[in-house]
Amino acid sequence: xxxxxxxxxGHIDHGKTELIKALTGIDxxxxxxxxxxxxxxxxxxxxxxxxxxxxxxxxxxxxxERFVKNMLAGAGGIDLVLLVIAADEGVMPQTREHLxxxxxxxxxxxxxxxxxxxxxxxxWLQLMREDVASFLKGTLLEGRPIIxxxxxxxxGIPELKIKIEELANEIEAKKTDxxxxxxxxxVFTMKGFGTVITGTVVxxxxxxxxxxxxxxKGIQGKIRGIQIHxxxxxxxxxxxRSAINIQGVDKTDIKRGDVLAHVGQLxxxxxxxxxFFLLPDSPHPLKNRQKIRFHLGSGEIMAVIILLxxxxxxxxxxxxxxxKLEKPVVALSGDxxxxxxxxxxxxxxxxxxxxxxxxxxxxxxxxxxxxxxxxKEGSFEDIVEFHVFNSGLDGMSLExxxxxxxxxxxxxxxxxxxxxxxxxxxxxxNKHFIHKDNLLKLKDTLIKELESFHKKFPLRPGISKEELRxxxxxxxxxxxxxxxNLLMSQNLIVLExxxxxxxxxxxxxxxxxxxxxxxxxxxxxxxxxxxxxxxxLFNKFxxxxxxxxxxxxxxxxxxxxxxxxxxxxxxxxxxxxxxxLLKDFLKKNKEITAAQFRDLLGISRKHAIPLLEYFxxxxxxxxxxxxxxxxxxx
Length: 634
Prior knowledge:
The protein is an alpha+beta fold and 634 residues long. Strands 2-3-1-4-5-6 form a six-stranded mixed sheet, sandwiched between helices. Strand 4, helix 4 and strand 5 form a beta-alpha-beta unit. Helix 8 crosses helix 10 (409-419) and helix 18 crosses helix 19.
């Protein structure tokens, strides 16, 4: 069944709450103060049964100018607006402001209820209908039904209900395959249940027992229960007014404006790319870095607006902007927002979020403005390409594209198929992508790292794969593995064991280096079972530690030297002789102590113990108590 949210709009005391009560039988004024003062202060909620297989949730908003903030908290999820105008008063200031807000939020459908018709005659009613029709020209409600009603007598209520159902039936149902997102507009506790929040599910769906988090704080909990229109339900889907009982989250940790989402699926941000339109009747131009009140979803946050392509925005003009918030909020590309001036608090404009994960830009930069223009006016492919490019050197997963883009999954997949091998590269079975330009940067960076390493260590066979990975710390493991395999397939690099080198690199020793290497090898060969201390060789040949270790590494790689322990290297011939002596002794005596092995080779414990441990590791011998025996029969 399709889920539609109807929201009221209009000036104070024009009969919005009474009209909802006449339509549904539900009094949406729930607060004691509302009852005492006779005005709506906060959001009220109701629902209307439909005969067209459409569930219609209703949000009743306050009409007083002091409570426009509360009105905005409920307007974000509205599909269909019911503009209420009292026939005895006509269009008033909040009529205009509320309709302007609906325009800015891109609500696409609605109708007008001319209330309190029992207070006027037919001639006045006809004049009022003409006046309202004139007021609606150029707005989303131009040409829409204007229904005269009286909540007191019931006149016009059945006709209004029929028109609401007809319009609700025309509205396209919200998609449920996006990320679950519910801007919270109310939080309270119920005895025996705990924390309960309410709000309109604007995308996706959630089920009882699902793990959720409250953003931007990231406090996690679990769905204990769900109610839709006062009835228990196992799930809540996009387009439904929902009351959700949360386990594991205290009421004091939640406030209006927070967002309920599945764990790890949405992120908050302090900075957003957007378009901004300054209303034609705004009393003043908008200046760069002007302080504003930013309304998104059910929240209000103080912010600064940065004009990217203008020094000053005049009424009726539009600009590309960055919105810098004082506190993080959750938004996705395609969300609409409203801005009210800091003081006095009046609605001055609004726009569309273009990018929920931006970088800080230089103002008046042509490349930046072109990118933002493509986001606003471009094709699906342009939007997908932008976000893959904007993900930088890490690339973008298909799952993240689903989460951040307000597009259907099949549209995203179709765009990717068009872009692959042209603008973006598939790095993992159609699950992860990197922009071609970013991949070129990665390739250049890796090649330069290898060139630098070879220049610094010309005698080493290459850099370890892990060390090179650390130098490429800006990318994730999957992208790194893809990059290594790609460069290997292009014969640009070679991977041997765990060492990576450029294909063009080869170690060439200078004549003096070759001679020094031979001298070092000779020292180890002549030392027998008592290999020299490296420090003695530094001094003997007047070389530094770095140069010595490079030559020793080369001798180790070539197999002339064997590393027994840190700073202890044996020549392969001497090690072979030591092994033969050990084998002969064990064949005759079955076992050998460390002292016997020391005496057998005529060496100290300093070298005897590391040698025995080496033969243990080689699985030639096995330590039993303080003796060694053959690990297996020879």
